[in-house]
């Protein structure tokens, strides 16, 4: 990903200045910097690439409409990454609520670039296989653990940022993440031992 | 795979970071672009998205200021807009010929009703005009002529959707988003017989029948304009014409 990984520093300072000087030019830069993070987050949240793209575009439009009403003080204090991820998750939750149901779970082939598993050698390649397997296991996590794990380890927000985005205490975030990770580990270990036995 | 859980643990966190999908380009989904091009009425500003042209204003209307155009775009669409590297394909020829051709329009922000009004207006041929009530009837909402007027004045893409071809029956051109004078100029440039329409209306004639074919038309219909004076008969209403044995023209559909 080409996106920024720190929500401070000269790049973010420059972005804030751009947004204040010329909203639309600044916004193009904001989209360029954060679109991958917003899309990655939504992809793991809604679990469907086409939906994730729609939701990401909608989230950015919401962000634009909000920014248009911000004064310069508010833009100067903006921390784009947690702010955008918050909007993205709200956009996703609204879409889920509007449809009255969760989007259908879809084929995992769409979720990761996965080599075709037509031969036994591909399945035996532990490293390549891990991504696809992990995507599958992440999608099976309970929602709270899934979103916390995704925000921390896919979106790469800090624990305080995850807490801010999800509006829960940091301790709760840590516990969701740790329970999610240990579940992933044990599921993986189980699958591995199953493979070995085969 | 049997090297113990310690390695697997690091693998999990590392693999999670690797779950990020391929880079994506959302710019076309979010932004609109603007350009300025020449049209028969002079320079116009045009905004478009990946779906098509969504906004057109005469340069005159925005005092030739790109800033005023993009501000009015943002106020209406609440979407970011940047200068386009070049106009969309087909825009200049669509403006020159009055035919959309391959040019697509992005009318997603309109209501169903507004879209229906614009689609109906798009069916009026060059050189002809229709009254507001005609559009209302064409879209199956005969009582909504007032709403038709509002929808036409809100037309985001005048010229490309020829809302200037909808006027009052007596030849009063009515309102226009680019100004009444521009509307009159456009209609004259399209060879609409506005003066004749006004003279006829002065005699309370709003429809013309052809005595040899027994078809009744709007006075701007190409069909009746080809008919010489001696074979014409004027009517105040379509009902009168029908009572006299005339059929409403299938081309201009004056209604009955």
Describe this structure in words.
The complex is a heterodimer of chains A (198) and B (256). Chain A is an all-alpha fold and 198 residues long. Chain A contains 10 helices and no strands. Chain A is elongated. The two termini of chain A are 37 Å apart. Chain B has helices at 5-17, 27-30, 66-77, 91-97, 112-121, 132-138, 145-153, 180-189, 194-202, 222-225, 238-243, and strands spanning 32-39, 42-49, 52-58, 81-83, 207-210, 215-217, 232-235, 247-248. Chain B is of the alpha/beta class. The radius of gyration of chain B is 26 Å and the shape is elongated. Chain B has 11 helices and 8 strands. The chains are: A mainly alpha (198), B alpha/beta (256). The interface between A and B is large, with 45 and 31 residues.
Physical arrangement of strands within the biggest beta sheet of chain B: 3-2-1-4
For the secondary structure, the number of strands of chain B is: 8
Query: How far apart lie the N and C ends of chain A?
Result: 37 Å
Query: What is the ordering of alpha helices and beta strands of chain B?
Result: HHEEEHEHHHHHHEEHEHE
Described by its quaternary structure, the protein is: heterodimer
In percent terms, what proportion of residues of chain A is strand? under 5%
Unreliable spans of chain A? 105-128
Question: What pattern of helices and strands is seen along the backbone of chain A?
Answer: HHHHHHHHHH
Mean pLDDT of chain A: 82
């Amino acid at each position: 990903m080409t996106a920024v990984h720190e929500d401070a520093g000269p790049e973010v300072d420059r972005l804030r200045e751009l947004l204040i000087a010329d909203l639309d030019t600044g916004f193009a830069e904001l989209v360029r910097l954060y679109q991958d993070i917003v899309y990655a987050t939504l992809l793991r949240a809604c679990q469907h690439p086409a939906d994730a793209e729609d939701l990401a575009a909608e989230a950015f439009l919401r962000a634009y409409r909000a920014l248009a009403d911000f004064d310069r003080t508010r833009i100067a204090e903006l921390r784009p990454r947690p702010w955008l991820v918050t909007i993205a998750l709200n956009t996703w939750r609204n879409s889920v609520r509007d449809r009255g149901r969760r989007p259908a779970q879809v084929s995992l082939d769409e979720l990761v670039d996965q080599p075709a598993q037509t031969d036994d050698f591909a399945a035996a390649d532990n490293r390549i296989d891990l991504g696809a397997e992990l995507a599958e296991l992440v999608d099976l996590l309970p929602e709270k653990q899934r979103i916390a794990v995704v925000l921390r380890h896919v979106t790469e927000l800090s624990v305080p940022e995850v807490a801010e985005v999800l509006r829960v205490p940091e301790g709760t975030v840590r516990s969701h993440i740790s329970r999610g990770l240990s579940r992933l580990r044990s599921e993986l270990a189980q699958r591995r031992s199953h493979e070995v036995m085969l | 795979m049997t090297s113990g859980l310690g390695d697997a643990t690091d693998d999990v966190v590392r693999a999670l970071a690797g779950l990020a999908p391929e880079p994506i380009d959302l710019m076309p989904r979010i932004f609109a672009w603007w350009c300025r091009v020449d049209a028969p009425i002079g320079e116009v500003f045009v905004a478009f998205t990946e779906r098509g042209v969504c906004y057109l204003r005469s340069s005159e209307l925005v005092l030739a200021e790109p800033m005023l155009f993009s501000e009015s775009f943002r106020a209406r669409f609440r979407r970011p807009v940047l200068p386009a590297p070049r106009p969309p394909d087909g825009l200049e020829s669509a403006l020159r010929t009055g035919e959309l051709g391959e040019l697509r329009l992005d009318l997603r922000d309109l209501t169903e009703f507004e879209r229906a009004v614009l689609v109906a207006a798009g069916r009026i041929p060059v050189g002809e005009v229709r009254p507001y009530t005609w559009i209302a009837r064409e879209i199956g909402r005969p009582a909504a002529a007032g709403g038709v007027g509002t929808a036409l004045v809100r037309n985001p893409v005048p010229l490309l959707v020829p809302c200037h071809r909808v006027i009052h029956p007596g030849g009063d051109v009515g309102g226009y988003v680019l100004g009444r004078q521009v509307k009159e100029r456009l209609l004259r440039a399209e060879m609409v017989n506005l003066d004749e329409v006004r003279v006829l209306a002065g005699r309370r004639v709003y429809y013309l029948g052809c005595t040899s074919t027994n078809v009744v038309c709007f006075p701007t219909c190409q069909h009746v304009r080809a008919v010489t004076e001696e074979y014409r008969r004027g009517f105040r209403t379509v009902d009168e014409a029908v009572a006299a044995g005339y059929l409403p023209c299938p081309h201009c559909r004056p209604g009955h």
